[in-house]
Amino acid sequence: MKTFENYRMYILVKDEFPSSVAINSAAHGAMNAYMKWSGEDEFDGWLKNSFRKITCKVTPEQFKTIEKVIEKTGLKKIEQTESRLDKDHILTVVYPFDSTLHEYKAFKFLSLYKD
């Protein structure tokens, strides 16, 4: 039986956007994730037993690296855009996963979001 204790949902904010945009987009992204994935066993297990989230500020290079990991591992994601900024892709919300698994080690090198 899964405990979900090592599961994390990552919110990857592109560093080119100011915190005034990032905060609002992160709130929308988290709500979108809940609306989209609620009812899935894995998501609901994370929600009930862990609910750990990590918000990171990522450079373009880091973003490319993480996108490759997401694609290779098949992780689900939501690309959050901002309509008032011509639908710019502000951040990506990554489906909760066991962050201790080797295939996700690139996530460990990301910096926490700080303003």
The secondary structure category is: alpha+beta
Outline type: globular
| C-alpha Rg (nearest Å) | 14 Å
Uncertain residue segments = none
What's the helix count? 3
Strand-residue proportion: 25-35%
State the separation between the terminal residues, measured CA to CA. 39 Å
Look at the structure and give the mean pLDDT.
95
Helicity level: 25-40%
Largest β sheet strand count, sense and barrel closure: 5 strands, mixed
The side-by-side strand order for the widest beta sheet comes to 3-4-1-2-5
Total beta strands: 5
What does this entry look like structurally?
By secondary structure, the chain is of the alpha+beta class. 37% of the residues lie in helices and 29% in strands. The chain has helices at residues 19-37, 41-49, 60-73; strands spanning 7-14, 53-58, 77-82, 88-98, 111-112. Strand 3 and strand 4 (88-98) form a beta hairpin. The longest helix has 19 residues, at 19-37.
Q: Briefly, what is this?
A:
By secondary structure, the protein is an alpha+beta fold.
